[in-house]
Amino acid sequence: MEQKSGQKPKRTEAQIREERLKAALKANMGRRKAQARARADNGADNKEKE
Question: Full-prediction pTM beyond 0.90?
């Protein structure tokens, strides 16, 4: 059986889970990097005030 070009292949439960975890990890890393940048900026501001 051939698939039509407009149809997506069916994904298994493992693939769905993998994609969901990948997206969650990417979002989490983005938040952590933003927090680290904010802390670094805040630390630099405190040093300038002294």
Answer: no
